[in-house]
Design brief:
There is one protein chain. This protein is 26% helix and 24% strand. With 85 residues, the protein is α+β, with helices and mostly antiparallel strands. It has a 5-stranded mixed beta sheet with strand order 2-1-5-3-4.
Length: 85
């Protein structure tokens, strides 16, 4: 199982805070980038938001690149860049 979390404005735009992907019943994406592509195919209504190049991704609470490999049991988070003041 891979747990996917959405934060900030992205969560509001998708109207989804989290979803679980059963790695036994689907062809599990191998990288963070492949997961984004999978989500765009599985949820075409999310394409515009998930194609945003400024979107950040983290695996197990660590920011990673789109080439980072996924493992069963990972927690993946996607969120827009955060600015402070």
């Amino acid at each position: 199982m891979i747990r996917v979390l959405f934060f900030g404005q992205l969560k509001e735009q998708l109207d989804c805070a989290a979803l679980d992907l059963d790695t036994q019943s689907i062809a599990t994406p191998s990288t963070l980038g492949a997961l984004l592509q999978y989500l765009q195919r599985a949820y075409p209504q999310w394409c515009d938001q998930l194609q945003d190049k400024s979107l950040l991704g983290a695996i197990n609470q660590t920011l990673v690149s789109s080439e980072h490999r996924l493992l069963d049991g990972d927690e993946v988070a996607f969120f827009p860049p955060v600015t402070g003041g």
